[in-house]
Every structure is written in structure tokens, then in C-alpha cells.
Write a structure and sequence with these properties.
The chain is of the alpha+beta class. The protein contains 9 helices and 19 strands.
């Protein structure tokens, strides 16, 4: 039997509220399937499952607050006697459905004695019954205050509007909650992680020239942004310095996959950091496709659990017209963060000649428990070499 646990979606998460199960007992699930939606400080998150099997039992009710690590469901893995389990589940479901069917054939509000004496037209009664409207809550406008068809229809509209409003409020997420989540993680980082900071100025002449030439051959929707080269160069450099692609959890734990977390600013304030999985193995075109998919969903807070929990190193990028440099704070349990400032024209010397070139200031914040300044400096040098050879990306 496999236990499906409430996942941790970051150092700032202690619990989440189960909003909806997307699967039911008896369903077969594959790795990567969405099994539930959970509300956290970062919004409504789709929770993936990373095992295969048949759902045996759902242990948590919708609407319950669930601490991280709590067993939420049980799965029968492939190879076990599923037929017996399915039979038990079907029998259980049949038993549970019986009282529900009785309630449907005889709505609860008709059990109230006072409803039997309410003046209402036969049509109004029928419409109320079909829509589960309590007649005692309606003020009649017909003769002798009798409830009419129009009165019931207004009541139905009122209920519908309230439900729509409640659903809207449920899917909206206050900026304050996201800021609180970020503040919690950053406070933990400043308290526990001994940061060191390095900065390197990188010439982007070759990278931007290659990018301009490449984009002239592409459709508008397929053109690359400079940040794609930043992500790819960072991922490639991490292959040379695996100690930076790691977590600190009772010691240094190297990560096999290079999943770049990309910091995205939200429209109403706050940030969220989804992961670009295996960025070192993706082409620049594939990274651009990922950004086009993930950025709109991040701004609407519609991300998957793996996109929020799998990052092994984060990148923060100021973009055009912003600050020259950005010094990030490490997101625990990661051990580094890379910051790219705004691209700007700056004086540059080459073989004694002074010129103006497009430059970017790149910073590295490292965890001194995991690496030191020498490792960090060599990493930035490697990143710069990657950007001097854009065709290799």
C-alpha cells in the first residue's frame, strides 16, 4: 500500500486546505496525474502524484486544513490484488449512495411542517422542488401573499449570485498572503543562511548579436528573449559546479536534475517562483515555450505542485530599464541564487581600446556552509564563457 502525503511546496509552507479531489476511489493514477487541488498561501495549487496504482481510499475530506506530511490517500500499487479492493470500494459506494438517493426523491425542505401550509402556486412549488429552494425563505407577491413562479425564480437567481460570488472569492487570493509567505521564507533565510555575495560584469555583444540574427529567422511568437540565454547559460554552468545545484538539509545534498526557478512578479504585488525542469537538457526554444506557458499561469496562481517545489536554484532577473544589479536572498533549502540586472550600454576596454558595449551585471548569493567565494567566482566565470559562445547554447 502506498501512502500519498500532503507535499511541501516550499520552506514557508506548514499546511494547506484541500479544496477538491480530482480522483476517486477505484481510479487508476499515473505518475504526473493531478489528484487534488490544495489552497496554500501561494494560491490554488494542482497537486500531482508521483506513483502509479489504484486509489484505495481518500482519507481527507474536502475543506479540511492538512499539515505537510499528512497521509491524504492510500494507493494499491501495480501487481497487488486490485480486484478485491475495487469490489470492496464498489460495495462501499453502493451503501453510501442509498441514503443520498432517498434525499433526492424527497427533498429535505418538504419535511418541514411549516412548508406544507405555505401559500404557493403548484408551478412555484414544482420549480422550488427541482431547484432545492426552501419556500419558507421566500416572501410571496401574489394574491394573499401567495408565492408565485416569479418569486421562486428570483430566489433561484439570488442563490446563484451568492454561489458565484463565493466561488470568485475562493479563487481570488490576497496579495498579503503571498507576501507573508515570501516574508516567512526570507526571514528564515536571513536567520539561518550565512550568505556571501559576488558580482561579475558580463559583455553581451556576441550573445545579443546572435539572438538578433536568430530571431530574424523566426516567427514573432517563436522569438527568444535574452532571459532564455541567461537561464540556459546558468544551467550549463551548474553542470560544472554541482555544489551550487543542491539543498542544505542536515548537510549538503546534491541534486541530480537542474531545475531553474524563475522569479515572476505578480500583477498585484508579490512574487512566485515556478521551476523550469531540467533546463540544462532543454533547447533555448523549449525554454521559451516553457516560459510562455508558465508565466501566464503563475500570474493567475494556477501552478502545479512540482512547479513550486522542484527548483534547485533560483534566477531573479530585473529586466529592461530596471536596477543595474540585484542581490538576491537564497530560498531555503537551496544554497544559491543568481541575479541578472538590467542590460545597459557601458564603457568597456579590450586590448587597450575603449568602447561602448551592452553589459549585464550578474550576481551570485551563495550559502557559505555549502560553497565558498572561490567556487562562486569560478561559476560566474563559467557562466560568462557560456554567454560569449551563444551558438553553443
Amino acid at each position: 500500500m502506498i501512502e500519498f502525503l500532503m507535499p511541501s511546496l516550499g520552506a514557508d509552507m506548514e499546511d494547506g486546505t484541500l479544496v477538491e479531489w480530482k480522483k476517486k476511489p477505484g481510479d487508476w493514477v499515473n505518475r504526473g496525474d493531478i489528484i487534488a487541488e490544495v489552497e496554500t498561501q501561494k494560491g490554488l495549487i494542482e497537486i500531482e502524484i508521483f506513483d502509479e496504482g489504484t486509489i484505495s481510499e481518500l482519507l481527507i475530506n474536502e475543506g479540511e486544513k492538512v499539515p505537510v506530511g499528512t497521509v491524504m490517500a492510500l494507493l494499491n500499487p501495480s501487481g497487488e490484488a486490485l480486484g478485491t479492493t475495487k469490489e470492496k470500494i464498489l460495495n462501499k459506494k453502493t451503501i453510501e449512495l442509498q441514503p443520498t438517493e432517498e434525499k433526492i426523491t424527497e427533498p429535505k425542505y418538504f419535511e418541514k411542517e411549516e412548508n406544507l401550509h405555505i401559500k404557493a402556486s403548484p408551478l412555484a412549488r414544482r420549480i422550488a422542488q427541482e431547484n432545492h429552494i426552501d419556500l419558507s425563505k421566500i416572501k410571496g407577491t401574489g394574491p394573499e401573499n401567495a408565492i408565485t413562479k416569479e418569486d421562486v425564480e428570483k430566489a433561484i437567481e439570488t442563490v446563484h449570485n451568492k454561489e458565484t460570488f463565493a466561488e470568485t472569492k475562493k479563487t481570488e487570493f490576497p496579495v498579503e498572503s503571498i507576501r507573508a509567505a515570501v516574508a516567512s521564507a526570507m526571514s528564515k533565510s536571513n536567520k539561518e543562511i550565512p550568505h556571501y555575495y559576488l558580482e561579475k560584469r558580463i559583455d553581451l555583444t556576441k550573445a545579443l548579436s546572435w539572438l538578433q540574427e536568430y530571431n530574424t529567422r523566426q516567427e514573432v511568437k517563436k522569438r527568444l528573449l535574452p532571459v532564455v540565454l541567461f537561464i540556459k547559460a546558468t544551467a550549463n554552468a551548474l553542470k560544472e559546479f554541482p555544489d551550487l545545484n543542491a539543498f542544505w538539509d542536515n548537510g549538503l545534498q546534491l541534486k541530480k536534475d537542474i531545475n531553474i526557478g524563475f522569479v515572476i512578479s505578480l500583477r498585484k504585488g508579490g512574487i512566485i517562483v515556478p521551476a523550469i525542469h531540467q533546463a540544462d537538457l532543454k533547447s533555448c526554444d523549449a525554454i521559451m515555450d516553457t516560459l510562455n506557458d508558465i508565466i501566464p499561469r503563475a500570474k493567475e496562481l494556477k501552478l502545479r505542485s512540482s512547479e513550486l517545489s522542484d527548483s534547485t536554484l533560483n534566477i531573479t532577473n530585473i529586466g529592461e530599464g530596471g536596477a543595474d544589479s540585484v542581490f538576491g536572498i537564497i530560498y531555503p533549502p537551496q544554497v544559491a541564487i543568481v541575479g541578472f540586472g538590467s542590460i545597459s550600454e557601458q564603457p568597456f576596454t579590450d586590448n587597450g581600446m575603449i568602447g561602448i558595449r551592452p553589459m549585464v551585471n550578474v550576481t551570485l548569493a551563495g550559502d557559505h556552509r555549502a560553497t565558498d567565494g572561490l567556487t562562486g567566482s569560478r561559476f560566474l566565470t563559467s557562466l560568462s564563457k557560456q554567454l560569449q559562445n551563444p551558438e553553443s547554447l
